[in-house]
Amino acid sequence: MNRRITQGKQSLLFCDAPYIVSAASVAGSKEAEGPLGKLFDITNEDDLFGAQTWEEAESTMQKEACVLALGKARVEAEDIRYLFGGDLLRQGIATSMGVEGLQIPMFGLYGACSTSGEALALAAMSAAAGYGKYMLAVTSSHFGSAEKEFRFPLGYANQRPLSAHWTVTGSGAFLVAAADTELPRRAAADTATENFAPRRAAGDTVKEETAPHGAEGGIEKEKAAPRMSHVRIAGVTVGKIVDYGLKDSQNMGACMAPAAMDTIVQNFEDTGYTEADYDRIITGDLGCIGQSILFDLVRGKGYDIRRKHLDCGMTVFDRERQDTHAGGSGCGCAAVTLASFILPRIESGEWKRVLFVPTGALLSTVSFNEGASVPGIAHGIILEHREPDEEKGE
Amino acid sequence: MNRRITQGKQSLLFCDAPYIVSAASVAGSKEAEGPLGKLFDITNEDDLFGAQTWEEAESTMQKEACVLALGKARVEAEDIRYLFGGDLLRQGIATSMGVEGLQIPMFGLYGACSTSGEALALAAMSAAAGYGKYMLAVTSSHFGSAEKEFRFPLGYANQRPLSAHWTVTGSGAFLVAAADTELPRRAAADTATENFAPRRAAGDTVKEETAPHGAEGGIEKEKAAPRMSHVRIAGVTVGKIVDYGLKDSQNMGACMAPAAMDTIVQNFEDTGYTEADYDRIITGDLGCIGQSILFDLVRGKGYDIRRKHLDCGMTVFDRERQDTHAGGSGCGCAAVTLASFILPRIESGEWKRVLFVPTGALLSTVSFNEGASVPGIAHGIILEHREPDEEKGE
Asked: Complex ipTM, two decimals?
């Protein structure tokens, strides 16, 4: 309590920063054909994932992502203190139905497409405070359920403007552990790195020789001491609602860009970092239109993040080849990109410090039909590569 | 980090327990005619609260409740570190639009009618962890917007079975402060108690002599040293999703009773308390049908809470006179009852320890139409009366 944690107006820098010790991604068929296709743990040619409805399919993805993230780290569901989860659907039903079977005490969240940031922030805050060894953060979205929720059922074959986003069918789950947690013993030498490796080999079929839940390493490998991962959540910048008065729900990039700018600039002001201190600044789903607005807005505040910026919505799909217009979006977009593409690079040390900023557009069909504007919100998560030696030196 | 906080499987008992330092309630016309009518801070004969739509009206209530809770404690919005809020509407739009103007970094939540418990739990967890001096928790519901969201627009004059609940039009906001917070100086002798007093005198008009935001005490009164309130959040029991397979969305009491039982019994097991240790065990909105099921389920676990139990849904309306069938419900039901009826009794010492257990039914029109069951969730908040002397002795 006496050690300084709060930082500036909206940020926390943790004294005993928690770690992301494993992550898992489950994605749909279009995502499997995209640039990250080979990096996902599970993809399915049938976007129903064996279920009867899009909503059930989304719940199935969430459950699979959670079970996989747990399995990679060899942690049981009953060892998870609290789960933080959410999705885009009304009354967060994909999450309720998805995580019900895990029987983990849970906090349901809604932050539109920023929910993965919200869930990671609360999971990290809870782990850093000593409220439990393990926390689980999970979010999802599904193209079929989101089109039905926000626009039209797929059967209507609705046309979309070029500024529109394509909701990612996918779910990402993240196991967060307190700094002093001893991970379970497992059967591989450098185990932690494999917690971020995709479950499957390149190709569509799951490797038969892998252990249940996709843990790598056969039993014949030497038993190794448990090791913490190299990815710690150093801090968070909790976003506030930013409303520039835009009302076009088919141009969510423009609606969310001001919130992304606000959180990024606030993170700089709170922490003293600038774009030079981050290897990457990665927004959730601004898409190409939102990105250019973000660059302009951030420049107006005296910063230039162009050379450091990535956007998950522009990373997850090949815009030209896949006809996804402005880019990907949805609670699953930033989540699967973080799990499959960003975390392995931090784990390996390729990136030393990343500001991960999922962005959300706060609207419903009711608010839109009643003429309300579409404000945005974005939460910043500071992810750092950390060598075990660095920990000891602290 | 080294002091023991986690307790049993799902509970936390805080080392430096935070306090609820003020609360405010805003309610509709039917609630004003109910048993708690004179205890609310603001009621309005026109349930639109000056807005054009039910959704806007709900947002207005949330904003008013927040501003009032801040005003009672003489705390500015910019001094609030984080806001935790939610409502029943799809994509939590009442909260987004309601709290936008406050510009407080925020976490959007969804836990159906249990959201006030979820918000208080996270606010207390954040304050106890040292993540900021002040946190704000707010929830709301509105009969008009909820009927439209879950059933039919009011204009359809839909008939309701006797097992149905009546969604409370109301919003409650709670200012949570870390244990070591020095409250702002203010102009009354025993100030904290007044933070829980209703803003208005008996009757419909707001007292003209009160300060802005309803703070009591004129400037001619003697300046007194700041004092902490007597209501502390000693701990929380975070609920998990409990599904007994019920599918009747018009009998939510039955759907939620198993979750209430689960959280109450878990609280007993985690903390070692039983019904004898609580002056009251107060559920959110089980109504009369849910209450009788709860009694049976709890008795099956070896406890008897009948003499200690209250239900906010049965407290907020007069069932016979107001024709509200099973009782009140909604995110606002437990919130306004806590703010207006429960907290003043804890503040005064009439009740020394209360287990507050808001209950939620996890469904949407989509999940209902697709034949899914209606699971429940309930979060337990341990509220204790605390004299200043007791604090020093610790």
From this structure: 0.92
